[in-house]
Amino acid sequence: MASKFSGIFWTWVHSSTGPKTTHFWAPVCNWFFPIQALYDWNRDPAKISKEMQCVLVCYSSLFMRWALRISPQSYILFCMHLFNATLQGRLLIRRLMWESSQQKAIEDKPTN
Amino acid sequence: MFGIVPKLQQYVCAWNFWPAFMKKFIMSEKGPFTIFFWTPLAKWGISIANIGDMRKPVEQVNTLQQCVIAWTGLLFTRWCFIIRPRVYSLVLCNFCMAQTGLYQLYRKHQQGKLFTR
């Protein structure tokens, strides 16, 4: 009689790269980066850090290439960094457009 | 993809003034013409950007982003110890990333703005 804890699912749970190990949770936690960018979809641009967003876009762009060059290739990591680069890039663009509009408002302000 | 980077690598390596150790570095598998060289630098960039942001007012610090940076930093520090081969520079990089994230969260907590967006 098959044990309750045999089968593909439980074999995976107890495996060396399963959910009881850091090997599993470290890449899962990487997904919190794009999830955070989604949560901050409408964040006030005055509160976005331009430098941090630049760094995150560069970081994800480089890791997209890295995910395809490592052995074995990790398409999930590639997708995660693709989403992250796009979403963090969106926040960066929001900030840059806000700065540009602020600059324009200062220039257009009538001087007495 | 189009073979540009290997051609550039060969071109740069052919310059006469490089000493032998520099040529070895340029042509190595983890040299400056490969992605394996630049990815740890990008990760260090996150810590450096966070250190730069410490001068800014806490309202500009994103709580959720710092939580994610701190948590992934800590988890990847642990991950770097269990993979083979161990790369201690990556351990240091992830540890610093986590520390800068935690310090930013502490700054927000000190001003009572940890849960404000």
Automatic annotation (TrEMBL), chain A:
Pfam families for this protein: MPC
Top-rank lineage group of the source organism: Eukaryota
GO BP, sorted A to Z: pyruvate import into mitochondria
GO cellular component: mitochondrial inner membrane
Keywords annotated in UniProt: Membrane, Mitochondrion, Mitochondrion inner membrane, Transmembrane, Transmembrane helix, Transport
Topology in membrane: Multi-pass membrane protein
Subcellular location: Mitochondrion inner membrane
Sequence similarity: Belongs to the mitochondrial pyruvate carrier (MPC) (TC 2.A.105) family.
Function description: Mediates the uptake of pyruvate into mitochondria.
Protein name: Mitochondrial pyruvate carrier
TrEMBL record, chain B:
GO CC terms: mitochondrial inner membrane
Location(s) in or outside the cell: Mitochondrion inner membrane
Keyword Lyase: no
Any single biological process term in GO: pyruvate import into mitochondria
Keywords per UniProt: Membrane, Mitochondrion, Mitochondrion inner membrane, Transmembrane, Transmembrane helix, Transport
Pfam family, one: MPC
Membrane association type: Multi-pass membrane protein
Transmembrane helix keyword on record: yes
Principal location: mitochondrion
Family to which this protein belongs: Belongs to the mitochondrial pyruvate carrier (MPC) (TC 2.A.105) family.
Role: Mediates the uptake of pyruvate into mitochondria.
UniProt-recorded name of the protein: Mitochondrial pyruvate carrier
Natural source organism: Paramecium primaurelia
